[in-house]
Amino acid sequence: MPQESLTLYKLIVLYMLDRVDFPLTGAQISEFILEKEYTNFLTLQQAISELTEASLITARPFGNRTQLLLTAEGTSTLAYFKDRISDAIKNEIRDFFMEHEIEMRNESSILADYYKATTGEYEAHLVAKEKDLHLLDITLSVPTKESAAAICDNWQRKNQEIYRYLVEQLF
Question: Could you tell me the pLDDT band of residue 131, with boundaries at 50, 70 and 90?
Answer without folding.
Answer: low
